[in-house]
Amino acid sequence: MRQEPFSIFTIHLPVKRSFQWRVLLILVASYFLANLAAIPLLRATNMPIEPVWFWGVATLVAALVLGISMLLANRTGLGAPLLEGRLQKEDISAWLRSGMALTVLMCVLGLPVSLLVNLNVNPASYPADYQLVLASVKAGVVEELFTRFLLISLFVWLGSLFKRSHDGRPTRGVYWGAILLAGLLFGWGHVGATLGNPVMILCTLLGICFGWLFWKLGIEWAIFAHFAYDALVSAVLLKVYLLNNTLVWIGFVSLVILAAGISWRALRQNGPETRMR
């Protein structure tokens, strides 16, 4: 019996697209609401909360930055295919299947490392689940919009000034260089300049994975994968670790293995490659 070829659904957005104000408004609103979502955790941990005027200024600055990001993405084949309405009805299922499967596999591969770097977590001061999930919303939206949507689009655009393929698209090397550089900056930004720190290594690898998702499937999946990973680690994995119950561990590990198997099988299905004109 012939085995179907391994294929991952990939979105190929045009490198010359018109600016969509509706998409910008959605991204700015997402930025604002994501920042609000982190307030319960800030209050629970006695962290300072910025005054109202700061939120207004920050949102205006974010709107400008996101507008620039969209302009750069529209010239480099990057973007938000779902928000832009670039996905055809028959493509949605493949886009969703690949994105979910890749998200699950990324989470599974990163769980052991995340556990190792959080072994000293204090159970007495550990926040509530809903606070951690809401904070994960902020991490997924805000960090991806600035470290992936902006930085990768900027780096790819700069690289495309020097290297383009025959169809006018930046070369694969340009995309990979931008993803790696943005991932390194993402990791460095989490722990400062402490090179070799396990947290920096983990965050850099995660940043590369999220950047690759942005390139292949759009910023929507980079945001969701980041949120899902943070929420799974903080609200599930570390809670299981703190419970220190053998049966709970067995159940959790079994579910993780099952999810990984289903996701790998989904990726093995042959998916179409779509070019958006």
Structure keywords:
mainly alpha, 2 strands
Describe the protein in words.
The protein has 277 residues and is an all-alpha fold. It has one domain (11-270). 70% of the residues lie in helices and 1% in strands. It is built from nine helices and two strands, in the order E-H-H-H-H-H-H-H-H-H-E. The chain has helices at residues 21-37, 39-44, 52-74, 89-116, 129-160, 172-191, 198-217, 219-243, 246-268; strands at residues 11-12, 274-275. Strands 1-2 form a two-stranded parallel ribbon. The two termini are 36 Å apart. Mean pLDDT is 89; it is low at 1-5.
The fraction of residues in strands falls at under 5%
Low-confidence stretches: 1-5
| Largest sheet descriptor | 2 strands, parallel
Shape: globular
Radius of gyration: 19 Å
Separation of the first and last Cα atoms: 36 Å
**How many structurally independent domains?**
1
Strand order of the largest sheet: 1-2
Oligomer: single chain
Helical residue percent band: over 70%
Say how many strands there are: 2
Structural class of the secondary elements? mainly alpha
Q: Averaged pLDDT, please?
A: 89
With helices defined by DSSP (H or I, 4 residues minimum), what is the helix count?
9
User: Could you spell the SSE succession in H and E letters?
Assistant: EHHHHHHHHHE
